[in-house]
Amino acid sequence: MRITSARVIVCCPGRNLVTLKIETDDGVHGLGDATLNGREIAVVSYLENHLLPALIGRDPAAIEDIWHYAYLGAYWRRGPVTMTAIAAIDVALWDIKAKVAGMPIYQMLGGASRHRIMAYGHAEGEDIAACLDSAQGFVDAGYDAIRLQCGLPGVGTTYGVPKDGQTRYEPADADLPAEHVWNTARYLNQVPKLFEQARRRFGDDVHLLHDVHHRLTPIEAARLGRDLEPYHLFWMEDSVPAENQAAFAMVRSHTTTPLAVGEVFNSIHDCREMIQSGSIDYIRTSLTHAGGITHMRRIAHLAELHHVRTGCHGATDISPVGLAATLHFDTWVPNFGIQEHMPHDDIVAAVFPSNHRFEAGYFRVDDTPGHGVDIDERLAADYPFKRASLPVNRLEDGTVWDW
Ligand code: EZ4
Ligand code: CO
Known about the structure:
- This protein is of the alpha/beta class.
- The chain has 2 domains: 3-104, 2-Layer Sandwich (Enolase-like, domain 1), CATH 3.30.390.10; 109-369, Alpha-Beta Barrel (TIM Barrel), CATH 3.20.20.120.
- Helices cover 35% and strands 19% of the residues.
- It has 13 helices and 16 strands.
- The strands form 3 sheets. It has an 8-stranded parallel β-barrel with strand order 4-5-7-8-9-10-11-12, surrounded by 4 helices. Strands 1-2-3 form a 3-stranded antiparallel β-sheet.
- It is globular.
- The N and C termini lie far apart (46 Å).
- The structure holds (2S,3R,4R)-2,3,4,5-tetrahydroxy-N-oxo-pentanamide and cobalt (II) ion.
- (2S,3R,4R)-2,3,4,5-tetrahydroxy-N-oxo-pentanamide binds at residues 37, 211, 213, 263, 315, 317, 340.
């Protein structure tokens, strides 16, 4: 069996999504997600100009060999663009291998460790009351885990809070970056109040999560972790920027609030030190941005040795193809923790037909051979690429800050 074609399909059914399609002389094809939110065309170019021409004529079954050919063959290692491009190839090849075997991908990995996948929903609101009302909807729908994000008094919109008149903060839709304002002191005072009220309203049985989105220094994160301890969070995510992995050991030494990190990582080397030092509880690397199934397995195995569980990134910039591959990984991975979930719009679901089910806060993976998602290329062509940028954050004095 040989690869006969490999091409990239870019579409924007409400948000930009990049898909790699690999075809073979047997007529079997595989799909991989190559979406890097706000930097989509960099990955398209990397694939089209550098990686795809070298795939033609190769045996699609040689996944490890092709992975290392792309990774070592670049000479220039790692980075989100490279690792997203490699992930797209990896997932498309796993899709082909599993289709040829007549099995869902999770069976190829070693079989199911669980029959359903716990996911957390995103409750959002301009203020605490609006966020709690949003969370009530998830409680009523049967979710066992909810992420809470709310706006800050007098600060305008911020990460995780819906834009005026909309129900969700995603997707990025500004041609050039919107600018937000950030105030750490108000944030540190607001978040514990949000969780205090959430526990009072929803009781102890629901898992509550929060995403700091990299905006604190280590000692500020330590304070927030401590202040949140009475409300028993499932996790506090991305509390500090993680270029300095040792910062997490410092946060860890001050608080028992569980720590999650990793959606912006793209390789095992980005999290090795913090996993091995016992500084985190959940690793959030996404299969789409960290080298696909082949590399995520390595991260999960390292994590398992150190009591770290997975909590894969699953915002809507992970396409239905990337999400499906993640669901197979989640079904197999022994040290599963939780899966992030934001529903894709109906039009995205129409472009990417799939039988995976989501009900009352849990995914159930479908047994179609491969990862189980296809693309309607004719429909995709009706939604051409539109440049879209993530926002930029500034302090009130104008200093650029983490968003
Ligand atoms: O901001 O995926 O935990 N989820 C997140 C996401 C990220 C987006 C960026 O593209 O932090 O909402
Ligand atoms: Co996050």
